[in-house]
Specification:
The chain contains 15 helices and 11 strands. With about 500 residues, it is of the alpha/beta class. It has a domain of about 300 residues: Amidase signature (AS) domain (Amidase signature (AS) enzymes, Alpha-Beta Complex), CATH 3.90.1300.10. The protein has an 11-stranded mixed beta sheet, with helices on both faces. Helix 8 links the parallel strand 7 and strand 8. The two termini are about 15 Å apart. The model has no long low-confidence stretch (mean pLDDT about 95).
């Protein structure tokens, strides 16, 4: 079959289970595509061809014996390079961990291995997940497959670009302030940030521990639901992991939206939206009403302070988490220092890039004596108010919707010298992480030929309902656009 690399995971899964194609054939299609476009897109830090071929061969052998090969067997996946993979280099996009080989798998990777994971590579990312464009990678920037002159978003930009370019069928990302949803929006994909604690963080190299969450990036909502069902569930190795049974997310997709109450937070649809983003949002809201949903304005009055609170809390936690990278136990060590303190300083100066250093300094300052309560303490109070705002809104509404990002993908280099402008690209996504609720981005239109994402936010642990709304709207929107070969790589 032609273009197996461009098919959806659930389509390939069906073909593989009926043995109409082999896992080796699917993998060959994706690896050939990597050879074709990776030099332009630069999605991967490490391509794991040998490991992928072993997994594909094992899947084919199991099916030949009439055995269950696993729910992820034979469907090539990209894994963000912030997740530990046993024996496979895990860099976090940083010189600090350039040659780090973990001796264990992250829980989500282990669960997928048990289901026949075919991992084709470790995807590029902003260093230690700090960024919104994947330009902060210590190795190279990733380009958007829709337009090679634009960014794919960040920090999971490599994961999103790989799926959009056909270099993987689906991918794992992590989301601390929008790092799954914003790249999904920029690359015309579906990206889900689950409820905090639904998916294990064990083996996820921490940026901000109270905000980080692992989730899927996929080509449609069905793929997203399928992958989430493989990732979710309690993990005793993660003290923040939530107990309880995992719902059947796939079974929930067919319910429609009739009678659901949909809120549109006025604070997320004000200034800063491009005309194309606003038009795509209004079209999606109109479709929801035509399908029987009740759409009305909502308010989250403390959202004006969300960005400020986030950029105190996240750097403060990063300052604490990244203190472990000191040249003593693992990772980079700069030799030739006269004493231990000089070795610390020289190692961290060489190992961390400018954005990571900026956030470490911000966080250290916010936590320092005399400033802790004025900054970090106040930010946590604002976070509580934002959580209360969402709780109040969800008493009236089943879901909330907004743009995922105020703009489509911006140009490479356009915001590198202006950190505040870069931070503002996550203004719609950050509140979700502060509140710990789930949210999904789906493609809802084009703005000057570039994808626009719609963010749908749900109640805590209400992913099934969230995906039901996303699936119904996805079908109504009928988004069929593909990357343009004249600007990007095409599919």
């Amino acid at each position: 079959m032609d273009k197996l690399y461009a098919m959806k995971a659930w389509e390939l899964k069906s073909l593989l289970e009926r043995r109409e194609v082999s896992a080796a054939e699917v993998l060959d299609s994706v690896l050939d595509r990597i050879v074709e476009v990776e030099g332009k897109v630069r999605s991967y830090i490490t391509v794991t061809e040998e490991e992928a071929r072993k997994a594909a061969a094992a899947a084919d052998a199991a099916r030949a014996r009439g055995e269950d090969a696993g729910a992820a067997a034979g469907v090539p996946m990209a894994v963000k390079d912030v997740l530990c993979t046993r024996g496979v280099r895990t860099t976090c996009g940083s010189r600090m961990l350039e040659n780090y080989l973990p001796v264990y798998d992250a829980t989500v990777v282990g669960r997928l291995r048990a289901e026949g994971l075919t991992m084709v590579g470790k995807a590029n990312m902003d260093e230690f997940a700090m960024g919104s464009s994947t330009e902060n990678s210590a190795f190279f920037p990733t380009r958007n497959p829709w337009d090679l002159g634009r960014v794919p978003g960040g920090s999971s930009g490599g994961s999103a670009a790989a799926v959009a370019a056909g270099e993987a069928v689906w991918a794992l990302g992590s989301d601390t302030g929008g790092s799954i949803r914003q790249p999904a929006s920029f690359c015309g994909l579906v990206g889900l940030k689950p409820t905090y604690g639904l998916v294990s963080r064990y083996g996820l190299v921490a940026f901000a521990s109270s905000l980080d969450q692992v989730g899927p990036i996929a080509r449609d909502v069905r793929d997203c639901a399928l992958l989430l069902s493989l990732l979710a569930g309690h993990d005793p190795l993660d003290s923040t992991s939530l107990p309880g049974e995992v719902p059947d997310y796939l079974a929930a997709l067919g319910g429609g939206v009739r009678g659901l109450k949909v809120g549109v937070p006025r604070e997320l649809v004000q200034e800063g939206l491009t005309a194309g983003v606003r038009e795509s949002l209004e079209n999606a809201l109109r479709l929801l009403e035509e399908m029987g949903a009740e759409v009305s304005e909502a308010s989250l009055p403390n959202l004006d302070y969300a960005l400020s609170a986030y950029y105190i809390i996240a750097p403060a936690e990063a300052s604490s988490n990244l203190a472990r990278f000191d040249g003593v136990r693992y990772g980079l060590r700069v030799e030739g220092a006269a004493d231990m303190l000089e070795m610390y300083g020289r190692t961290r100066a060489a190992g961390f890039g400018p954005e990571v250093k900026r956030r470490i300094m911000l966080g250290t300052y916010a936590l320092s004596a005399g400033y802790y309560e004025a900054y970090y303490g106040q930010a946590q109070k604002v976070r509580t108010l934002i959580i209360m705002d969402f709780e109040e809104a969800f008493r009236r509404f089943d879901v909330l919707v907004s743009p995922t990002s105020p703009t489509p993908a911006f140009g490479l280099g356009e915001k590198v010298e202006d950190p505040l402008s870069m931070y503002l690209s996550d203004v719609c996504t950050i509140p979700v992480n502060l509140a710990g609720i789930p949210a999904v981005s789906i493609p809802c239109g084009l703005d000057e030929g570039l994808p626009v994402g719609l963010q749908i936010m749900g109640k805590v642990l209400d992913e099934a309902n969230l995906l039901r709304v996303a699936h119904a709207l996805e079908e109504a929107l009928e988004f069929r656009a593909e990357p343009d070969p004249a600007r990007g790589v095409g599919r």
